[in-house]
Amino acid sequence: MDMKKRIHLELRNRTPSDVKELVLDNCRSNEGKIEGLTDEFEELEFLSTINVGLTTVAHLPKLNKLKKLELSDNRISGGLEVLAEKCPNLTHLNLSGNKIKDLSTIEPLKELGTLKSLDLFNCEVTNLNEYRDNVFKLLPQLTYLDGYDKDDKEAPDSDAEVYAEGLDDDEEDDDVDDEEYDEDAAPGDEEEEEGEDEEEENEEEEEEDLSGEEEEEEDLNDREVDDEDDEEERGQKRKRDLDEEGEEDDDD
């Protein structure tokens, strides 16, 4: 898919001025140039053109609000001086996997006063002696180079990209709303659970009462049977006594 068509699909019936994030990874650029992107994307803050065959960024439109630019895995070897003019507020730039061989190629980036993070992984320039020290000297505004600061401390995330604060605000708000909703719903759930627990306790108590009554009834029945047995024995004894008295009278 070519870049123009991809941009059209990414718009999803939105106007360019409504777009803050645009991902064009793995599409095809014509003659290594950026196409279909205009200065109408005035609110764009994040642009990703990974592996699209770019050889130049000369055709990049004016994007004053662009903060993060992904250009990794292309064939860019120079012409970076246009970035200061086209993206004056850039804070994160990823040039990993391009044809950058020496420090002079990245020297124009010193005009990007807001640039905080630069990635040059898999570029030949990283093989130069004292590469990191020289880049930090050349670009004093940098905080992170290839994911680490001057003291070799890792950036806040693994890609040295602390961007997306503004882009994720709406999503975070939605998450907060969901959490608040859940919290509001929680008391009702607890009351239902408490009600269920009370019902279970009442049922257990009723079962205990019933079992107690059954045991009492069994005891009463046992006592009644014992009483009947005692009366029967007494009756038999009286009968034997009378029989014995009758025999004595006959003898006399």
From TrEMBL:
One of its GO terms (biological process) is regulation of apoptotic process. Residues 165-252 are annotated as: Disordered. SMART domains: LRRcap. Keywords: Leucine-rich repeat, Nucleus, Repeat. Residues 165-233, 243-252 have a biased composition (Acidic residues). Gene3D superfamilies: Ribonuclease Inhibitor (3.80.10.10). It is found in: Nucleus. GO terms for cellular component: nucleus. Multifunctional protein that is involved in the regulation of many processes. Belongs to the ANP32 family. PANTHER family: ACIDIC LEUCINE-RICH NUCLEAR PHOSPHOPROTEIN 32, ACIDIC LEUCINE-RICH NUCLEAR PHOSPHOPROTEIN 32 FAMILY MEMBER A. This is Acidic leucine-rich nuclear phosphoprotein 32 family member.
